[in-house]
Amino acid sequence: MKIETAKHSGFCFGVKRAIQIANETAQNNKKTITLGPIIHNPQMVEFLRKKGIHSIDDINDISDETIIIRSHGITAENYKLLLEKDLNIVDATCPFVKKAQEFAQKLTRDGYQLYILGEKNHPEVEALLSYIDDSAVVVTNPDNPFPKPTKGKVALIAQTTQSEEKFERLAKKLISLCEELHVVKTICNATILRQESTRNLAQKVDIMIVIGGKNSANTTRLAEIASAEGCRTFHIETGDELKIAWFENVDNVGITAGASTPNWIINSVKEKIKKINETK
């Protein structure tokens, strides 16, 4: 049984940067926390917890700790509350997420009705909306009905981990509904590369194993892409979820991983698949 890993998989630049910032901060501060998980990978969050970096969901539980702003960013309201608490704030927001926030603010200031392709309850989108007073229209699926523009000038951006194909479909629909459409592709390049390499690999193998947090939007999208190619696909977080039955009559196994998935988890899954092959 041949095992092939997608060319682009695992940690992206923004996640590597956030983890590095967290480790360096913990070395220099006794109390270090993140407001919400720093990345969407439960195993990595637990690994950091053992190193003294704790995740807290309620801002009211924060007192005198050093606070790390997670890679997805936080809302403007929460940032203001942190400043009022006079905390030591370390910002690990992904630069691409910050860029999307800047575009959202500029476009709304310039009088555009803003549309965002994304998930309204995802922390990145929640933060985006907070910087423009929740004035944007969030579209999760361009194939479903969504509110039509009330202005002639419309702008479109995306959650950084969205599907490029869905983004293009939404742009085509919007252009027929307004006088002017300003499109800014805020999907980061790492996301596009992971999606492309997953799609290419899914076309060649019998089964795809997608590794990453069940709470990870970009990992979930990789699983959707592989499945859409007609490849039998399983989304797992660790090798413990693998089942021997999945690999019966399988000659080629493809592996891909979300942008928040560390190499040590990817490698452990590979080893587990090799052991399953030895028992066949």
What can be said about this structure in brief?
The protein has 280 residues and is α/β, with parallel strands linked by helices. 40% of the residues lie in helices and 19% in strands. The strands form three sheets. It has a four-stranded parallel sheet, with helices on both faces. The chain has a four-stranded parallel sheet with strand order 3-2-4-5.
Descriptive account of the structure:
With 280 residues, the chain is an alpha/beta fold. It has three domains: 2-10 and 190-279, 4-hydroxy-3-methylbut-2-enyl diphosphate reductase, catalytic domain (Cobalt-precorrin-4 Transmethylase, domain 1, 3-Layer(aba) Sandwich), CATH 3.40.1010; 13-93, Rossmann fold, CATH 3.40.50.11270; 96-187, Cobalt-precorrin-4 Transmethylase, domain 1 (3-Layer(aba) Sandwich). It contains nine helices and twelve strands. It has helices at 13-28, 42-50, 76-84, 95-109, 123-130, 164-175, 189-202, 217-228, 263-279; strands spanning 2-5, 32-35, 53-56, 66-69, 88-91, 113-117, 137-139, 153-158, 180-183, 207-211, 232-236, 252-257. The strands form three sheets. It has a four-stranded parallel sheet with strand order 1-12-10-11, with helices on both faces. Helix 6 (164-175) links the parallel strand 8 and strand 9. The termini are close together.
